[in-house]
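Q: My labmate handed me this sequence with no annotations at all. I'd like to see what the chain might look like in three dimensions before we decide whether it's worth expressing. Could you predict it?
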Amino acid sequence: MTADTALGLSELAADRALLGRTSTAERVAGVLRERIAQGLFRPGVRLSEERIGGALGVSRNTLRESFRLLTHERLLVHRLNKGTFVRVLTAADIVDIYRVRRLVECAAVRGLDAAPYRLTDVAAAVRYGEESAARGDWKGCSTANIRFHQALAGLAESDRTDDLMRGVLAELRLAFHVMDDPRRFHEPYLTRNREILNTLEAGDAATAERLGLTPLLRLVSFARDGVPARTMGLGPVGATRGALERAGLSLDDMDLIELNEAFAAQVLACTRALGLTEKDHEERVNVNGSGISLGHPVGATGARILATLAGEVRRREARYALETMCIGGGQGLAAVFERVTG
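A: Here is what I predict for the chain of 342 residues:
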């Protein structure tokens, strides 16, 4: 039994009083749901009927019924002859959760009548997120994000919508508990949440709905470099190294690379200097073509490359991608992007 599980059991013993004499499977499920949301039972953990039933003081039959309720809510999963476990989300699960969340929230905002809107809960969630971030409390920041999305859906003033979002957001918590870098994930949303609130306070629901749409990529880092004019095509090499260093990543971390080129010799020189192989060319460098095959529009190459990159990152469900550009006179640019899943 892990330390987290032991802590969860000790916390459950204190919850026994919440059940009272009218203990029901629904109330037991409510207690477990809250403890899962708090991360006391992490994804993948097996839930012991004997230990949890003893901690809560309920029968095995009552506990099994509560497990069935939470399995129906997609928080638990039962494995034959192995037991009941806290669910581990797949990448497809997370994509679907965010898709549903966007549909509900954008519809709620789109359906608003004339301003002013009832934004007390939305504003409170935004403030709590900013205060949590200032303290370095990223778990609190994740709670604030959950509250923010619940409050946005609440603008529809529908009990059914509220119930739907509670279930969706409870599942989302499972993803938060296994995140490698909570700060990197949650921090960008603080600014977006504040923007949405300010826009709603100004009475502009249409713009708020657009802000609620999820971008495809997030800029992680960028860098510039310069080389002598006679070797102008090598500018992206130094820029790439700088962008990767700023991101704390390596070239091996890049799932896709879009290296701008007007001539094949230029991209070959850059990839050779960066140590990329023939296999890299086949699998992750300019996989949909490049300047020669797709076009080299004056003043619009950067946008063309980024659009190509964003589409391919989404299709592959990749994580990190690199875009580079060489510019006449010896300049080089490079930027690292990360796929946004929320």
